[in-house]
Amino acid sequence: KYLAPSSPRSAALLRSCGSSARAMAKDVRKPEFWNKFMQRPEVQVAMKKKLKYESYAEQAQRTKVDKLERKQHRYDIMHELMQCATNVKHLISPMFRYKITQQYLWKVLCEARKEGLLFCDKLRQPQVYHRLMAIKAEITAGPYGVAGWQAEEEVEEDLMDKMVVEADCIPGGIDGEAPDRKQVLDRREIQGVLDFGQQIKTEGNEAFVNENWEGALTRYCQGDEMLKNFRAEPHLQKENKELKTMHRACLNNKANAALKMDQWQTAIRAADAALKLKHDDEKALFRKD
User: Fold this and answer.
1) pTM recorded for the entire structure
2) How confident is the chain (289 residues) per 10-residue block, as mean pLDDT?
3) Is the same domain home to 201 and 263?
4) Which of 159, 154, 261 is nearest to 217 (CA)?
5) By C-alpha distance, which of 123, 128, 119, 124 is closest to 235?
6) Is 132 part of any domain?
């Protein structure tokens, strides 16, 4: 069977057959060459494969679909990241715009869903966390890393706004902004806050029993300042409830100690803060009146 030398099929076959075919290139205009060439086993295999041609329109459509798919992946990843502890957000925030980060986070999210795990728990697995640290090192490796513009992916502004979490770690926010933002802690970290809060509350109660109003007020103020700046990850409902209850008790005790020292404004502010946590708190209502 004769195959035209100039056809795409012949060009593909020549490429697939390597150096031996190139050595015979001087004979490609002779029918005898092609008759012999077509008898080669590798050519017979290649002839059975279908060549796929992709038009520019098909390629553009595929690129558009891929871009939309990556965008949806970013929104899915961001939704899950917002449920994670602040230290995880701080790790991922500077490198979220890089494709290598998004691809790996999507892989981790798919694995977490398949395994029935929370995304935040999956990210805390040593092999995953160490891989994220390795990606960070690769991105920041200067001219030898992947921090070039080709490695970046255009990220939606609303997603990047969510990733600005610096205020999470600063009591009262930055320059008065976002005063209600709290640092989000994982189970181990929030337990440390609860233990320390309980210690401060106990010391304040002991001082109050001994009529050391100033010492009691100092401890309750310390407890308030600490507890108001933290919350647990959303799925840690028990810990969040315990933290809220402890904070409310600390505020009520703070109001009571302030009343003992005739610090009326301090007492009112503490009672108002307790009522924000529970609008029908009887102790807070009584001390405010």
Assistant:
1) 0.54
2) 51 54 61 78 75 67 82 88 83 84 92 91 88 84 54 60 50 45 82 90 90 89 87 88 90 87 85 77 55
3) yes
4) 261
5) 119
6) yes
